[in-house]
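User: I need a structural model of N-terminal E2 ubiquitin-conjugating enzyme from Fopius arisanus for a docking pre-check later this week. Nothing fancy, just the predicted C-alpha coordinates so I can convert them on my end. Input:
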Amino acid sequence: MALSPSERRLQKELMALIREPPEGVQVDEDLVGQNLTQWIVHMEGAKGTLYEGERFQLQFKFSSKYPFDSPEVTFIGGNIPIHPHVYSNGHICLSILTDDWSPALSVQSVCLSIVSMLSSCKEKKRPPDNSFYVKTCNKNPKKTKWWYHDDSV
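Assistant: Understood. Predicted C-alpha coordinates for N-terminal E2 ubiquitin-conjugating enzyme:
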Protein backbone atom coordinates (compact mmCIF):
# COMPACT_ATOMS: atom_id res chain seq x y z
CA MET A 1 0.00 0.00 0.00
CA ALA A 2 1.35 3.41 -0.95
CA LEU A 3 2.10 5.93 1.74
CA SER A 4 0.16 9.18 1.84
CA PRO A 5 2.11 12.46 1.46
CA SER A 6 1.74 12.96 5.22
CA GLU A 7 3.12 9.49 5.97
CA ARG A 8 6.02 9.98 3.55
CA ARG A 9 6.93 13.23 5.28
CA LEU A 10 6.69 11.61 8.73
CA GLN A 11 8.81 8.67 7.62
CA LYS A 12 11.46 11.06 6.29
CA GLU A 13 11.43 13.09 9.53
CA LEU A 14 11.59 9.94 11.65
CA MET A 15 14.67 8.72 9.79
CA ALA A 16 16.32 12.15 10.14
CA LEU A 17 15.60 12.21 13.88
CA ILE A 18 17.02 8.70 14.29
CA ARG A 19 20.16 9.46 12.24
CA GLU A 20 20.91 12.97 13.52
CA PRO A 21 18.98 13.76 16.69
CA PRO A 22 19.49 17.09 18.44
CA GLU A 23 21.64 16.75 21.55
CA GLY A 24 19.64 15.22 24.40
CA VAL A 25 16.79 14.09 22.12
CA GLN A 26 15.94 10.52 21.13
CA VAL A 27 12.86 9.09 19.44
CA ASP A 28 11.53 5.78 20.73
CA GLU A 29 11.70 3.78 17.49
CA ASP A 30 10.03 0.72 19.02
CA LEU A 31 6.92 2.66 19.99
CA VAL A 32 6.60 4.31 16.58
CA GLY A 33 6.62 0.95 14.77
CA GLN A 34 4.08 0.97 11.98
CA ASN A 35 2.06 3.81 13.52
CA LEU A 36 3.63 6.96 12.14
CA THR A 37 0.90 9.14 13.66
CA GLN A 38 2.07 8.92 17.28
CA TRP A 39 5.64 9.19 18.53
CA ILE A 40 7.31 9.19 21.92
CA VAL A 41 10.41 11.37 22.13
CA HIS A 42 12.79 11.27 25.08
CA MET A 43 14.46 14.51 26.05
CA GLU A 44 17.21 15.22 28.54
CA GLY A 45 17.76 18.62 30.15
CA ALA A 46 20.77 20.39 28.66
CA LYS A 47 24.01 20.74 30.62
CA GLY A 48 24.36 23.95 32.57
CA THR A 49 20.59 24.54 32.79
CA LEU A 50 18.02 24.18 35.56
CA TYR A 51 16.96 20.88 33.98
CA GLU A 52 20.42 19.34 33.60
CA GLY A 53 20.25 15.57 33.95
CA GLU A 54 16.44 15.46 34.12
CA ARG A 55 14.67 13.20 31.65
CA PHE A 56 11.34 13.96 30.05
CA GLN A 57 9.00 12.29 27.58
CA LEU A 58 7.10 14.07 24.84
CA GLN A 59 4.19 12.63 22.92
CA PHE A 60 3.74 13.79 19.33
CA LYS A 61 0.42 13.11 17.60
CA PHE A 62 0.06 13.84 13.90
CA SER A 63 -3.11 14.31 11.88
CA SER A 64 -3.47 13.20 8.27
CA LYS A 65 -3.01 16.89 7.35
CA TYR A 66 0.56 17.05 8.68
CA PRO A 67 2.74 19.05 7.86
CA PHE A 68 0.04 21.61 7.03
CA ASP A 69 -1.46 20.96 10.45
CA SER A 70 0.84 21.21 13.47
CA PRO A 71 1.48 18.15 15.63
CA GLU A 72 -0.16 17.87 19.03
CA VAL A 73 2.78 17.84 21.45
CA THR A 74 2.56 17.23 25.20
CA PHE A 75 4.86 16.17 28.00
CA ILE A 76 3.79 12.81 29.41
CA GLY A 77 4.84 10.50 32.21
CA GLY A 78 5.81 11.12 35.79
CA ASN A 79 8.32 13.91 35.20
CA ILE A 80 6.65 16.89 33.56
CA PRO A 81 9.03 19.85 33.74
CA ILE A 82 8.16 22.65 36.14
CA HIS A 83 8.35 25.60 33.78
CA PRO A 84 6.37 28.84 33.32
CA HIS A 85 5.15 27.62 29.91
CA VAL A 86 4.43 23.99 30.81
CA TYR A 87 1.21 23.10 32.61
CA SER A 88 1.10 20.26 35.12
CA ASN A 89 -1.00 18.20 32.66
CA GLY A 90 1.85 18.36 30.12
CA HIS A 91 0.40 21.03 27.83
CA ILE A 92 3.01 23.39 26.39
CA CYS A 93 2.39 27.06 25.65
CA LEU A 94 4.66 27.50 22.63
CA SER A 95 3.56 29.51 19.60
CA ILE A 96 5.05 27.20 16.95
CA LEU A 97 2.72 24.44 18.16
CA THR A 98 -0.32 26.47 17.10
CA ASP A 99 -0.48 29.99 15.64
CA ASP A 100 3.10 30.17 14.35
CA TRP A 101 3.23 26.68 12.88
CA SER A 102 4.54 26.40 9.33
CA PRO A 103 4.89 23.32 7.09
CA ALA A 104 8.57 24.29 6.84
CA LEU A 105 8.95 23.28 10.51
CA SER A 106 9.61 19.70 11.57
CA VAL A 107 9.65 17.42 14.58
CA GLN A 108 13.34 18.21 14.91
CA SER A 109 12.70 21.98 14.96
CA VAL A 110 9.93 21.50 17.54
CA CYS A 111 12.32 19.48 19.73
CA LEU A 112 14.99 22.17 19.39
CA SER A 113 12.46 24.86 20.35
CA ILE A 114 11.43 22.92 23.45
CA VAL A 115 15.06 22.30 24.44
CA SER A 116 15.71 26.03 23.98
CA MET A 117 12.61 26.97 25.98
CA LEU A 118 13.72 24.75 28.86
CA SER A 119 17.35 25.88 28.62
CA SER A 120 16.50 29.57 28.87
CA CYS A 121 14.35 29.14 31.99
CA LYS A 122 15.57 31.14 34.99
CA GLU A 123 13.17 29.80 37.62
CA LYS A 124 11.26 26.54 37.95
CA LYS A 125 7.62 27.44 38.44
CA ARG A 126 4.26 26.63 36.90
CA PRO A 127 2.23 29.12 34.85
CA PRO A 128 0.21 31.45 37.12
CA ASP A 129 -3.11 30.02 35.85
CA ASN A 130 -2.01 26.37 36.06
CA SER A 131 -4.73 25.15 38.46
CA PHE A 132 -7.57 26.83 36.59
CA TYR A 133 -6.27 25.78 33.18
CA VAL A 134 -5.78 22.13 34.14
CA LYS A 135 -9.34 21.95 35.55
CA THR A 136 -11.01 23.59 32.56
CA CYS A 137 -8.90 22.85 29.47
CA ASN A 138 -9.65 20.62 26.52
CA LYS A 139 -7.70 17.37 26.44
CA ASN A 140 -6.15 18.49 23.14
CA PRO A 141 -3.88 21.52 23.73
CA LYS A 142 -4.33 22.57 20.10
CA LYS A 143 -7.94 23.47 20.94
CA THR A 144 -6.74 26.01 23.51
CA LYS A 145 -6.73 29.65 22.50
CA TRP A 146 -3.27 30.47 23.80
CA TRP A 147 -2.25 33.98 24.71
CA TYR A 148 1.46 34.42 23.97
CA HIS A 149 2.54 37.27 26.18
CA ASP A 150 5.70 36.28 28.00
CA ASP A 151 9.07 36.09 26.28
CA SER A 152 11.03 36.71 29.48
CA VAL A 153 11.54 33.05 30.37
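Before docking, keep this in mind: The chain has a mean pLDDT of 91.
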